[in-house]
């Protein structure tokens, strides 16, 4: 059963949405990353608050989401900061309007048991799978740079998460940097060499976030404000009572069903990330986040993953809807 205060907020948001011009229907691209807003998604809270029919479409990587958003098929999508940096560097007409998570232990580099990888230097010559131009790809390259390991001497292969899980089970790869549910598959017969929490401390933080096409944002600002309010309420609930998301809880069961992760893994991974309050979101989106995206873009250019970078990434970030939600 939903938390009473949260349920009351959803009802209030629904009533407010009834007075607004609803965007209907709306296709939203989501991924299998672990965060508290998946509970609101499972409960239909976004539909209730916005007064709109939402078609939730699951994607396996940020690159696939970006392609769908670029084509105009999807106006709103959940991606990571690395795909955002790549898309913004190409001038895609999008804006980040909400940070889903400051990524920690929910993304990690796992090495297979028996692969003879006990230290970073042992990755040389080994086959390491990662979805290209994803947050884990960026984190992998940043970790190799930190360790002084030449990335060109590591056999880095581009696989989607489901392909990584299958390749791992076949024994085709030695290591993988990925998120759930493929992360759980790898950890079952491997060990974590490093997670994004540590890579972030080395100066390469990564984020999950929501983007919106600028044309949709201009036409439907109230939809996005209500979307932000629901997400903020879900995060406030989690941050106030993390113990309510234990492995045997209804909240974790909902997240597990949406993402394909095991309940015990969901509980651990939730604790491994940071879910910013709306107040913190406003602070992040006003400038620091855009600066972090700029640094990510510079790194990707140095690695030959993007051809050019923008002079500023502020035009690709907006705190407008968070500030509206706070009011």
Automatic annotation (TrEMBL):
It holds the Pfam family NMT1. Residues 25-242 form the Solute-binding protein family 3/N-terminal domain. Keywords: Signal. GO terms for cellular component: periplasmic space. Gene3D superfamilies: Periplasmic binding protein-like II (3.40.190.10). The keyword Transmembrane helix does not apply. Transmembrane segments: none annotated. It is found in: Periplasm. Residues 1-22 form the signal peptide. GO terms for biological process: alkanesulfonate transmembrane transport. InterPro entries: Peri-bd_TauA, Solute-binding_3/MltF_N, SsuA/THI5. NCBIfam families: taurine_ABC_bnd. Belongs to the bacterial solute-binding protein SsuA/TauA family. This is Taurine transport system substrate-binding protein. It comes from Rivihabitans pingtungensis.
């Amino acid at each position: 059963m939903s938390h009473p205060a949260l349920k009351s907020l959803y009802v209030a948001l629904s009533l407010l949405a009834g007075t607004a011009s609803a965007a209907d229907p709306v296709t939203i691209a989501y991924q299998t990353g672990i965060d508290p807003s998946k509970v609101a998604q499972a409960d239909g809270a976004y539909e209730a608050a916005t007064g709109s029919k939402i078609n939730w479409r699951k994607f396996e990587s940020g690159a696939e989401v970006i392609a769908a958003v670029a084509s105009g098929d999807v106006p709103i999508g959940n991606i990571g900061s690395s795909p955002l940096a790549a898309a913004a560097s190409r001038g895609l007409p999008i804006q980040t309007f909400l940070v889903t998570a400051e990524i920690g232990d929910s993304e990690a580099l796992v090495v297979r048991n028996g692969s003879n990888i006990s230290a970073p230097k042992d990755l040389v010559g080994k086959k390491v799978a990662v979805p290209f131009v994803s947050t884990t790809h960026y984190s992998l390259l940043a970790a190799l740079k930190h360790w002084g390991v030449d990335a060109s001497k590591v056999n880095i292969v581009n696989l989607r998460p489901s392909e990584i899980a299958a390749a791992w089970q076949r024994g085709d790869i030695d290591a993988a940097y990925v998120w759930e549910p493929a992360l759980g598959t790898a950890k079952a017969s491997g060990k974590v060499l490093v997670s994004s929490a540590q890579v972030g401390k080395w100066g390469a933080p990564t984020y999950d976030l929501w983007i919106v096409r600028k044309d949709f944002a201009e036409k439907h600002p109230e939809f996005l404000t209500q979307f932000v309010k629901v997400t903020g309420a879900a995060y406030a609930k989690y941050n106030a009572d993390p113990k309510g998301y234990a492995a045997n809880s209804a909240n974790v069961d909902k997240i597990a069903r949406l993402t394909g992760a095991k309940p015990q893994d969901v509980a651990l991974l939730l604790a491994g990330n940071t879910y910013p309050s709306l107040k913190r979101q406003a602070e992040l989106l006003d400038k620091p986040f855009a600066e972090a995206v700029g640094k990510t873009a510079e790194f990707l250019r140095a690695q030959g993953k993007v051809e050019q970078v923008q002079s500023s990434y502020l035009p690709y970030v907006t705190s407008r809807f968070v500030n509206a939600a706070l009011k």
